[in-house]
Amino acid sequence: MNHPFHLHGTQFQVVERESDGVTTAEPFRAWRDVVNVKPGQTMQIATMQSMSGERMFHCHIIEHEVLGMMGALKVI
Ligand SMILES: [Cu+2]
After folding, report:
1. Strands, E, within the chain: which ranges?
2. For all residues of the chain together, what is the average pLDDT?
3. Rounded to two decimals, what is the model's pTM?
4. Residue 57 Cα to ligand 1 middle (Å)
5. What is the CA radius of gyration of the chain?
6. Ligand 1 centre distance from Cα of residue 48 (Å)
7. Domain range summary for the chain, segments of one domain joined by +
8. How far, in Å, from the CA of 59 to the mean position of ligand 1?
9. DSSP 3-state assignment of 64?
10. Domain covering 3-75: architecture
11. pLDDT attached to residue 15
12. Cα(45)–Cα(73) distance, rounded to whole angstroms?
């Protein structure tokens, strides 16, 4: 399935995407609130956090989130 990834507290940029062993640099950097992650795909993202604390990240499909597709980024 597709997974719309969301990070709380700030925006992020997609740096590169990897699918089937092929890594592709993102051709256009843009600040995002959400990015769709396709089945079998991974991504490298970059973000700036100006305040310490925990920032939740999760799949925006509520059923996925409830089943555990969520976590916390600890900013120190
Ligand atoms: Cu999902």
Report:
1. 3-7, 12-19, 22-25, 34-37, 42-47, 53-59, 70-75
2. 96
3. 0.89
4. 12
5. 13
6. 24
7. 3-75
8. 5
9. helix
10. Sandwich (2.60)
11. 98
12. 13
Phi, psi dihedrals of residue 31, rounded to the nearest 5°: -75, 130
In whole angstroms, give the CA distance from residue 25 to residue 76. 28
Q: How far is CA 27 from CA 13, 14, 76, in A?
A: 11, 10, 30
The rounded distance, in Å, linking the Cα atoms of 64 and 76 is: 28
Give the integer Cα–Cα distance in Å for 8 and 56. 5
Report angle CA 25, 28, 22 to the nearest 5 degrees.
Answer: 20
Q: Which residues of the chain have pLDDT under 70?
A: none
pLDDT at residue 69 in the model: 96
Query: Are the beta carbons of 57 and 5 closer than 8 angstroms?
Result: yes
DSSP code of residue 45: E
> What is the CA(39)–ligand 1 centre distance, in A?
10
